[in-house]
Amino acid sequence: MEVEVKLRLPDSAAHQKVLSLLSPFLTKTHHQRNTFFDGANRELSSRRAVLRLRFYENSQPPKCFICLKAKAVIVDGISRVEEDEEELDSEVGLQCLEDPTKLGDVNSRVAKRAKEEFGVREGFVGLGGFRNVRNVFEWNGVELEVDETVYDFGTCYEIECESSEPEKVKEKIEEFLKENGIEYSYSKVSKFAIFRSGKLPQ
């Protein structure tokens, strides 16, 4: 179970202010490409699950991870989701982007689990995806991820922090934002849900 604090920033100005304030604590920046898959008969989505390939495009060589997510719930800015992830050879990942049916044959525990547990019999289909720039900061004993997520229909900004003590961490981040006059709101849906809705959250 992955547990994360998720706070949404209203616009680019708020996002840039957060990046500027946290700049002394920056450890790395990831350029991510996320692509999602379902079974040909919606076997995953019908049970609130999705399969994702994530490419880290600025790593050398590029890295690829395959991830199965299920039963995501977000309440008061805290997300809980069942997640299973492993690294996948990036060349194999690129082949699966071009032909999603190849996902059913790759040497991957996660892909095999998605196929067998959810009964995917007629192969996988691609759903599309989005890009994300993630700046990672080591701040006050926690790892903050500040995201700029670019969809075809617009851009979202979000602060995420994985923690076993989400309420305590959320309070710490909220205090930081309030002290610096930065507007924010609790995230209500996942990035994938926004992508599938085709519109930015209000």
UniProtKB/TrEMBL annotation:
GO molecular function, one term: pyrophosphatase activity
Recorded superkingdom: Eukaryota
Xref: PROSITE patterns: CYTH
Pfam family membership, one: CYTH
PANTHER family: OS08G0299200 PROTEIN (PTHR34948), TRIPHOSPHATE TUNNEL METALLOENZYME 3 (PTHR34948:SF2)
Residues annotated as signal peptide: none
Organism annotation: Cinchona calisaya
Name of the protein this chain belongs to: CYTH domain-containing protein
Entry-linked Gene3D superfamilies: Hypothetical Protein Pfu-838710-001
